[in-house]
């Protein structure tokens, strides 16, 4: 933790599980769960506690897992939803409700949301052209399939699983050791 006098340490990949915040700009500071920045938003009436992105229920108060827009004070979203939106929106990242960009983006950066400096994923897809083809290769660092990265079976260890968030990357069930009990997989980008 970068707060003076706090001696807590944590691995960067473990930070989200411990509700720690890492700011991906400037000095790239990290804060423990006790000293992390907090959003100063007013409580909402309890009749509309839905995520502006996935439309599932969110907590009725601002917390590590439930965030809000500092501009419109109306939008609420899950941290994981706004993080996915930030990565896919790239330089077009803005509040999904009021469409504010600058103050909203600065607040999200302060709260530990990582942004991408590339064009939005939907623009990149349009430049390439519409595609009705499914992603068809294993993108694991080490592909274990004897048939190669492009080999895929309908079921079993060489079934190709696509990222449950973006479907832009895939892996054989056996390559990341998903086993038979896991039903979804998410790529490192998401």
TrEMBL record:
One of its GO terms (cellular component) is nucleus. The gene is G2e3_1. InterPro entries: EPHD, PHD-type_Zinc_Finger, PHD_PHF7/G2E3-like, Znf_FYVE_PHD, Znf_RING, Znf_RING/FYVE/PHD. The keyword Cell cycle does not apply. Transmembrane segments: none annotated. This is G2E3 ligase. Residues 1-36 form the PHD-type domain. Residues 51-98 form the RING-type domain. Signal peptide: none annotated. The keyword Zinc applies. Keywords: Ligase, Metal-binding, Zinc, Zinc-finger. One of its GO terms (molecular function) is zinc ion binding.
